[in-house]
């Protein structure tokens, strides 16, 4: 297959600097020298084995899954320690959207970024030993 994965997600912002600060302060992302955020595929693969993957999916136009965002897309970020990140989010004063949920394939929580984009946080299930 010639397409190997997602090489980036690029989003317009009314205030890119404020949005970048939010991702740094609330979610703990580190800004790279190009002004974006890097995610090493090897880090996710090391932590979650085959459970580490990028999902590219289409939803029906009328889906309510991205609500309360009015955007036509949502960002899903893989996290390594949901409990620590939820503590960080609470300390920042950022509200969760709904309650965190657990499934056999991982744990999920949701927040809105400053640009009104719903961010889904996903801690994949640990691979069986």
What this model shows, in words?
With 129 residues, the chain is α+β, with helices and mostly antiparallel strands. The chain has a domain of 84 residues: 2,3-Dihydroxybiphenyl 1,2-Dioxygenase, domain 1 (Roll), CATH 3.10.180.10. Helices cover 24% and strands 16% of the residues. It contains 3 helices and 4 strands; from the N terminus they run ααβαβββ. A 4-stranded mixed β-sheet has the order 1-4-3-2, with no helix packed on it.
User: What is the number of strand segments?
Assistant: 4
Output mean pLDDT: 91
CATH superfamily of the domain at 41-124: 2,3-Dihydroxybiphenyl 1,2-Dioxygenase, domain 1
CATH class of the domain at 41-124, named Alpha Beta
Q: Strand count, sense and closure of the main sheet?
A: 4 strands, mixed
The coarse silhouette is globular
Distance between the termini: 30 Å
* Low-confidence residue ranges: none
| Topology as a string of helices (H) and strands (E) | HHEHEEE
> How is the largest sheet built, in terms of strand order?
1-4-3-2
Helical segment tally?
3
Reported by name, the CATH topology of the domain at 41-124 is 2,3-Dihydroxybiphenyl 1,2-Dioxygenase, domain 1
Give me the secondary-structure category.
alpha+beta
The helicity comes to 10-25%
CATH architecture grouping of the domain at 41-124: Roll
Strand content: 15-25%
Please give the radius of gyration in angstroms: 15 Å
């Amino acid at each position: 297959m010639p397409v190997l994965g997602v090489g980036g997600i690029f989003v317009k912002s009314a205030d890119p600097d404020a949005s970048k600060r939010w991702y740094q302060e609330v979610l703990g992302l580190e800004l790279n020298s190009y002004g974006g955020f890097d995610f090493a595929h090897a880090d996710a693969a090391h932590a979650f084995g085959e459970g580490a993957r990028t999902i590219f999916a289409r939803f029906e136009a009328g889906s309510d899954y991205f609500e309360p965002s009015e955007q036509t897309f949502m960002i899903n970020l893989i996290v390594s320690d949901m409990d620590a990140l939820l503590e960080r989010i609470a300390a920042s004063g950022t509200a969760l959207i709904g309650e965190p949920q657990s499934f056999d394939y991982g744990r999920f929580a949701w927040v809105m970024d400053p640009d009104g984009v719903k961010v889904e946080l996903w801690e994949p299930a640990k691979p069986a030993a």
